[in-house]
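Hey, can you fold this one?
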Amino acid sequence: MTHPSLTIIRHEHRALSAMLRAITLLLSEHRRRGTLPDFDALQAMLFYVDEFPERLHHPKESRLLFPKLRGRNAQTDALLDRLDRDHLRGEQTIRELEHALIGFRMMSETGQRQARQARFENLMKQYVDFYLDHMRVEEAEILPLAESVLKDDEWAELDAAFLMNRDPLAGYEADEAYRPLFKKILGALQHSSNVGPALEAFAGAVLPARR
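Sure. Predicted structure:
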């Protein structure tokens, strides 16, 4: 039996992975060309990461899914502790990334441009590597465990909670207020000369329809 909450978690993982890879591709393209990135688009992308994965997806894992798996053995509890720490680290790191992007933007016409750009790109690479590994561990270890041990009433609670998520890149229609955000993100990818690889980064994620 396929549980809606597991499907949603996997779809949201693909959406976050796609967004992070797209940011990496866009930064690489501008570094290669020696041009400044579209700062508005980068800010929109980081806002997406903060607004959906960090504020919707991760808290539900930590508050609803992980507690249902605790107490079975010390190894599982230690892994869940690590993943909870990862979620806290993610919240802190996104603040650092947003600040580093502001610094890069504000100082891009000064002698600090190179240093500010390097700081933002290094932090971004660390964040991407960190979260791709985090999601790999969840999908390899935690989701199969949940499938094998949770009962029907526990799945019903999880399914109801995760079905409330409204992440447009995970296949939901964007709420009216978020449509300009996703049009900006999609436009940044479509106007990139590296459009092929950038759009390929969204494989498995459902892009919002252009309006």
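The radius of gyration is 18 Å. Let me know if you want another pass with a different chain boundary.
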